[in-house]
Each structure stands twice: as structure tokens, then as C-alpha cells.
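U., I forgot to send this yesterday:
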Amino acid sequence: MAAEKTIKYSRQREAIVKFLEGRKDHPTAEFIYRHIREDYPNISLGTVYRNLSLLEELGQVIKISCGDGNDHFDPNVEPHYHFICRECGSVLDIEMDSIDFINTLAEKNFGGRIDGHKAYFYGVCHQCCEMEK
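Result:
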């Protein structure tokens, strides 16, 4: 049996976790960095990226790559879906019934095993729609 990797405690990592707790706006690493620097002025952007990668590896955050050149981070690791606004670039949670049956549909003619999926919905968010009026 392989020994479980022991992760050394880090105040900076703890600050990142606390910053993300309960957030629904899916901030980027740069956004997190700008806010964490207020309490940790010596923290580097690289440290924020390394800690976010570790938190993703540990299953404590989800990294969302939505094609805008920035990764967004979500502390909600439960299965759920995201909406990406083509106007403002915001990443929002979508409250909806599960579409896990799509795994069975995909597997039907695949010949292998489908273990999961990611689905992003694209369009214009409510705020941007209101600004268009």
C-alpha cells in the first residue's frame, strides 16, 4: 500500500481556501492573487498558481478552462454545470437537473467506458442581456 502524500500546512494556501469558500463567481488566479496580496504582500502569482494546482489535485477546487486564456476556480466540487458569458466572460453555476444519462448515450456506440463528462453552456448572461436593452 502506497503511503498517502503528506501536505505541509501553508498559511498562504489556507488564505486561498478561505478566499474561495462559498464563492460562486469562479475567480481567476490573478483575481485571487490581487486579493490575497492585501494580507500576504510577499506572495507571488506563481505561489497562487502552485497552490491552486495542488488544491485541484487534492480535489478541493475545480479548474474551469473556458477558452478566454484564464483558468477560473470553483470551490464547489460537487457535480454541476457552468454557463460562460460570451459578452463579459463571467462563469456562472447553472441550477438544473443532472444530465448524467448523456454518459450512457455516449457509451452506446463508443466501445469503451465513459466515466463522466463536462458540459459548458455558452451565451449571454442576465446582466449583459439587461445592458443590451
